[in-house]
Write a structure and sequence with these properties.
It is built from five helices and ten strands. The protein is of the alpha/beta class and 165 residues long. It has a single domain, classed as YbaK protein (Alpha-Beta Complex), CATH 3.90.960.10. Strands 1, 2, 3, 5, 6, 7, 8 and 9 form an eight-stranded mixed beta sheet that branches. A two-stranded antiparallel ribbon has the order 4-10. Its EC number is 4.2.-.-. InterPro entries: Prolyl-tRNA_editing_YbaK/EbsC, YbaK/aa-tRNA-synt-asso_dom_sf, YbaK/aa-tRNA-synth-assoc-dom. It comes from Extensimonas vulgaris.
Length: 165
Amino acid sequence: MAKKTAHVSETPATAFLRAHGVPFSEHAYDYVPHGGALHSAQVLGLDPFMVVKTLVMQDQDARPLVVLMHGNRTVSTKQLARQIGAKTVEPCEPQVAQRHSGYLVGGTSPFGMRRQMPVYVEQSILDLPRIVLNGGRRGYLVGIEPQVCVRLLGATPVHCALAAE
């Protein structure tokens, strides 16, 4: 059952947002392993297009990068690689992603990561009035204006969305 809370204990992501004066809404839900953005959208009654997943990927030289993608879309790694000047891009193994981000997979937020990495955002996300993305803990999302990702993370817009299968 979805539940909205006034406040979940602080995470590195919420501390980062507060430190930068970013207003955000909080959305807690019962986490389900491998449920992903579609599960959270369903239980919270949100459009999966506005629920943004944070994906830790790497290029051919194992250099990590972050991709922000709609919850109901997948990343075309070929399109992404071409746009960022890489030969290839692929998802990191979960333990590698956790080492880079400092977050458990399923609770990865682009804010307050352990390691600074380049961030890429699907262009159409920036056209939305509001997005909801992970707040740094499994079962916890925060709602923000999408331009915050560009302003605070230096996110580069890309076109690499494919319809989810």
